[in-house]
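quick one before i forget lol
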Amino acid sequence: MSKLRAHVELQQQEKCLVGKNWQENNLVFPTGIGTPMDPHRLFDSYKQLLKQAGLLDCRLHDLRHTAATLMLGWGIHPKVVQERLGHARISHTLGTYSHVLPSIQVEAAEKMDEIVLRTGKGQSTSKPPQENIG
């Protein structure tokens, strides 16, 4: 959030510099005059940033897959992932990222094991331990 706030601040400065030539389109990442970015220029900038950072070349769309895989792998509810990706149906999200789900199943089994063992020791299972709350 701090990065986005800083970006908004920078954008406000750009608006002031450009003055009446600014074309407001309510975009998060517009050109220097407020218009939508040309997809080709955006792609070129992305590739240049990958090189500068010393990262492997990958498609821009791979970032979307990486984000979805990370969210599911970290236990973010599939419904939230579906909404973030803009999928119309959760079945599409689950089908596309099913390779991540086995690890989620293992984690769920381990948590159930912990709950059962805790119950066997007379401990309450009415609410999860704080560190497991997402």
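fyi DSSP finds six helices and no strands in the chain.
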